[in-house]
Amino acid sequence: MIKIAPSILASDFARLGEEVKDVEAAGADYIHVDVMDGHFVPNITIGAPIVRALRPVTTLPLDVHLMIENPDLYIEEFADAGADILTVHAEACPHLHRTIQLIKSTGTKAGVVINPGTPVEAIKHVIEDVDLVLLMTVNPGFGGQAFIERVLSKITETKQLAASLGVSPEIEVDGGVNAETARLCIEAGATVLVAGSAIYNQSDRKAAIDQIRHS
Ligand code: DX5
Ligand code: ZN
């Protein structure tokens, strides 16, 4: 069963609570929260106070994607705010194994993410420790970018690596996912699809989610 994680980055921030409730009613499985610090990526979005504000609004897991430098400094704060999954970039973590253990020590699920230009090799030695691997299908920083097809082989590679080690983390993709590109991701082995503009730019969010899920 494919899970759909709408990214609130594409929602109307002035009506954020309603926008979250809307995709929950439309069948979303996770709420994807894009945290950007203006250093790791060239954009600034939202932080732990927004996660805390959203916690009572939805029963769905809050899937928090940390596009920030020094994530260790903020992990406890995000966990305390109500994040269910905390995902950190391998590129931002010189002590990746330690950071993943820190996430797990808070009782939150741990995810690791790599950019399009980073090889799967970068997560080889932590994949047994994580609940989720996120493969960026755009360069992080902005919604509405074009899907990078070359990442598809990394989805298959990640699935094979996990299987060879006897683990089965969720394999999530993020960036440029729509009804057409979703099919390619699912065929390659993705189990969770993040979609921002393809869901929030449609007035009928249920139709948008169904189309992506059953593409
Ligand atoms: C990109 C973010 C994505 C983004 C996806 O840096 O991590 O989650 O919001 O947006 P779309 O689906 O519009 O590419
Ligand atoms: Zn994201």
Account of the 3D structure:
- The chain is of the alpha/beta class and 215 residues long.
- It has a single domain (3-214), classed as Aldolase class I (TIM Barrel, Alpha-Beta Barrel), CATH 3.20.20.70.
- Helix content is 33%, strand content 19%.
- It is built from eight helices and eight strands; from the N terminus they run βαβαβαβαββαβαβαα.
- The protein has an eight-stranded parallel β-sheet with strand order 1-8-7-6-5-4-3-2.
- α3 links the parallel β3 and β4 (85-89).
- It is globular and about 40 Å long.
- 45% of the residues are buried.
- The model has no long low-confidence stretch (mean pLDDT 98).
- The structure holds D-xylitol-5-phosphate and zinc ion (ZN).
- Zinc ion binds at residues 7, 32, 34, 65, 174, 194.
List keywords for this structure.
single chain, about 220 residues, alpha/beta, TIM Barrel, eight-stranded parallel β-sheet, about 35% helix, globular, binds D-xylitol-5-phosphate, binds zinc ion
Compute the CA-based radius of gyration. 16 Å
Low confidence ranges: none
Structural class category:
alpha/beta
Q: What is the percentage of strand-forming residues? A: 15-25%
Structurally, the number of domains stands at 1
Associated small molecules: D-xylitol-5-phosphate, zinc ion
Shape: globular
Q: How many helices?
A: 8
- Going by CATH, the architecture would be Alpha-Beta Barrel
- CA(first)-CA(last) distance: 12 Å
β-strand number: 8
CATH class: Alpha Beta
Mean pLDDT metric? 98
* Largest sheet, strands/sense/barrel: 8 strands, parallel
Strand order of the largest sheet: 1-8-7-6-5-4-3-2
The CATH superfamily turns out to be Aldolase class I
CATH topology: TIM Barrel
Helix content: 25-40%
H/E element sequence: EHEHEHEHEEHEHEHH
